[in-house]
Each structure stands twice: as structure tokens, then as C-alpha cells.
Design goal:
Oligomer: single chain
Structural class: alpha+beta
Helix content: 40-55%
Radius of gyration: 32 Å
Largest sheet: 6 strands, mixed, barrel
Order of helices and strands: HHEEHEEHEEHEHEHEHEEHEHHHHHH
Number of helices: 15
Strand content: 15-25%
Shape: elongated
Length: 400
């Protein structure tokens, strides 16, 4: 085993007498290097973009949300809510009332989800992280926080006392007067505008819990959901069992990932597609290694006759070129990983590429998982390419 490896290393580090062979070897090594570096850079860039995209949901969504399986709301008394807050691993709990509202401002209309939140909501979600102008609503007044998209649609700014925002919802009680006045209207002052993403900015607005309860005609112990902030490495299964035992009602608990299931599925699918495309690129690059090995076998034919005459077995001769192909693939790939890692780290800490038209550096993140995937791909495909190129060497050597 040492003899084939020794001969292969001599062939790898020694220049051939024919310059064409040297050029072919350099091209094969360079192509593998560039393809590997490109794969690692693209995966790191996609990971950076994925983190950047998910940062919006990480800011806006809680660690877990508890909802009723049936119906829009469920009842929780103060004693039960206190018991939930005392569970191990729960850092904060916020009760939520949420439903659709119709907005009107100076003859401009829009439909959003109004999210009424209690005083502990800011312990669950750090609202200051996505608030772009104004301030969070006051508990004492009828104030709301809207998204930048809503503000743009309605041409609305903060603390505009000339005209108040009008919120309209259907009445819930069935009575004779409902036919005459089927809707409830409430006015509110916009105290702040948040900015998360284009979709969310047009979809949600916030108010205090009592304002939302009055508007939606809900009792004081009724909630649409409970949003939780939990300690890291919390046992989810155990927490879910404890919550079901305390609440005594059919509930479902969804994590941040499950709340954005479509987004996570799309990002994972795109990452897999990118990986497969660049895997194909590396496979094409490895055909250069196959070509280089075949040329080396033809060039070393006289030496192979001598080795065979000295008693070297065809299997060992095949191993020589298998190791040689592996060296070209793995050394080229290793240098590609070093090059890719260097460029990714430079972009992360000393950015030189920016999103066109902005001063925002292109997001990248070097992840051990991506490096491991590239290494595994090189080991497998490089070994297969070398094995394929040298499969017939042992049989042909007898005919030389």
C-alpha cells in the first residue's frame, strides 16, 4: 500500500518531460480548485441571505405560539395564566387578541390584522428592534402602531392630530339594532410605524389589549393566542404536555419555524437546488481529472512495463493512478476550500462586495456544515472519478 502511494506522490510532484501533460495537469487542478471555491462561496452567500431573510421573522415572531385547535379564541382565567408563567423554562408570556379590521383614513381604505397585546409583549418581542419611527403605543390612550406598508397605502404619519385613523369591524351580537348599524367604529392615533418586510408591513398593526378587546367585543379572559419567550435548549415535548395539562383545552403549539413553514421550505429547497447545480459543475470539472489521468497512463507506459517486470501487481499499478487522481482532486479541492474560506471571511469582516445601489454589504456566513458538505462531495466524487479512470489499467497492463 505504501509503494503505490509513494510512486503516485512522485508522479504528482515531479514535472513531466512533455509540457502538454504538465499543462493538462495544471488545468485539471485549477478547474477543481475554482469549482470547489465557487461552491463554498455560493453556499456561504446563500446561508448569509437565508439568515438575513429569517432575521425578519426572528424579530417579529415569538419562540412559540399557543393557539386553540378549534375556533379563533379560547378562555384562560388569571389563575391559569399565572400557572403558565410559572412553568420552568418560560421567560415571558403575552396574551394576544387578533382579528381583521377595516381601516379608513381620509377616504383611503385598507384591511389588516389588528394585534392587541398586553404589557409583557415587549418582553416576548423586542419591539424597539423593528420600530422605525415614533414610539410604542401608550396604555392610557387609544393609540396604534402600524406597518410602513400601511402608512404608505393610507398616506399616514405618526401623531397626526388633524385626522384620526378609523378602525371598523362587524358587530358580534345579534340584535335588532345590528341590522341598522352592523359595524363598530373606533378611532385611534398612530403613535409609531414599524418596518420588518414588505409583506408584514402591510399585514399587521398593534394596539393595547383593552383597545382590541373593546373593538372585537371580547371578554376579559378571552385570547386568540399566547406567545412565549422560552429559555434556550428547552424540552418542547415536556413543555407542551405541561401546557395541555394546565389549560385543559385542545391546543397546538407552533415554533417560529412552524409559523414560517412555507418560508423555511422554500429556502431549504433553494439551498438544495444550488447544491445540486454546483455538484454538477464539480462533476464536469472532475472529467478534466479523468482526462489528465488517461494522459498520464499513456505517458508512463514505458515505466509501467518496468514495474510489471519487477513484480508489481496490476492491482498495485491501478492504485498508483487511483492515488494520483485522488491527489489532483483532493489537493485541488483543498486549495479551493482554503481560497473560498478566505474570500468569505474577507467579505464578512472586511466587506468588498455590496448590494447594488446600497451601502449594505452582501451577507455571507461561513458554516461548518457547508465546509463538511463540500469536503464530503470532493472525497466521494474525486474517488469515483479516479476509480473510473483507472478501472482498466490493471487489465491492460498485461497487454503492454
Amino acid at each position: 500500500m505504501r509503494f503505490p502511494l509513494y510512486i503516485a506522490s512522485r508522479y504528482f510532484f515531479t514535472r513531466s518531460k512533455q509540457s502538454v501533460i504538465n499543462i493538462i495537469n495544471y488545468i485539471a487542478l485549477s478547474v477543481v480548485l475554482i469549482a470547489t471555491a465557487a461552491l463554498l462561496i455560493v453556499l456561504s452567500a446563500f446561508t448569509g441571505l437565508k439568515d438575513f431573510g429569517l432575521s425578519f421573522s426572528n424579530v417579529f415572531d415569538p419562540d412559540f405560539r399557543i393557539e386553540a385547535i378549534q375556533g379563533k379564541v379560547f378562555e384562560i382565567d388569571s389563575v391559569t395564566l399565572a400557572s403558565v408563567k410559572q412553568l420552568d423554562g418560560i421567560l415571558a408570556v403575552s396574551g394576544i387578541i387578533e382579528d381583521k379590521v377595516f381601516l379608513n383614513y381620509r377616504d383611503k381604505n385598507h384591511v389588516v390584522y389588528l394585534k392587541g397585546v398586553d404589557s409583557t409583549y415587549q418582553k416576548v418581542i423586542e419591539s424597539n428592534r423593528f420600530l422605525s419611527s415614533g414610539a410604542w403605543f401608550s396604555k392610557e390612550f387609544d393609540e396604534v402602531v402600524i406597518g410602513g406598508g400601511v402608512a404608505q397605502v393610507l398616506s399616514l404619519g405618526v401623531y397626526d392630530y388633524n385626522d384620526f385613523l378609523v378602525l371598523t369591524v362587524p358587530k358580534r351580537s345579534a340584535s335588532a339594532t345590528q341590522l341598522k348599524e352592523p359595524f363598530i367604529n373606533k378611532t385611534a392615533l398612530v403613535s409609531g410605524i414599524y418596518s420588518v418586510s414588505e409583506e408584514l408591513d402591510k399585514k399587521h398593526m398593534f394596539s393595547n389589549l383593552s383597545f382590541a378587546r373593546d373593538l372585537f367585543q371580547r371578554k376579559g379572559n378571552v385570547y386568540s393566542s399566547l406567545e412565549l419567550k422560552v429559555a434556550p435548549n428547552l424540552n418542547r415535548k415536556q413543555l407542551e404536555e405541561q401546557l395541555r395539562a394546565i389549560l385543559k383545552t385542545p391546543i397546538r403549539m407552533r415554533s417560529r419555524t412552524e409559523l414560517n413553514a412555507a418560508l423555511f421550505k422554500m429556502l431549504n429547497t433553494e439551498q438544495m437546488a444550488i447544491y445540486l447545480i454546483f455538484t454538477l459543475v464539480i462533476i464536469i470539472a472532475l472529467f478534466n481529472v479523468v482526462g489528465a489521468l488517461i494522459m498520464m497512463i499513456l505517458e508512463k507506459r514505458p515505466q509501467l512495463k518496468v514495474l510489471y517486470a519487477l513484480g508489481v501487481q496490476p492491482k498495485e499499478i491501478r492504485l498508483i493512478f487511483f492515488y494520483l487522481g485522488g491527489m489532483i482532486s483532493w489537493v485541488g479541492g483543498g486549495l479551493g476550500i482554503v481560497l473560498g474560506t478566505t474570500l468569505v471571511l474577507l467579505q464578512r469582516y472586511f466587506p468588498f462586495l455590496y448590494v447594488p445601489g446600497t451601502n449594505f454589504p452582501y451577507p455571507v456566513r461561513l458554516e461548518f456544515q457547508n465546509v463538511a458538505m463540500v469536503l464530503m462531495l470532493l472525497l466521494v466524487l474525486g474517488g469515483l472519478a479516479s476509480a473510473w479512470a483507472t478501472a482498466q489499467v490493471g487489465k491492460r497492463i498485461k497487454l503492454l
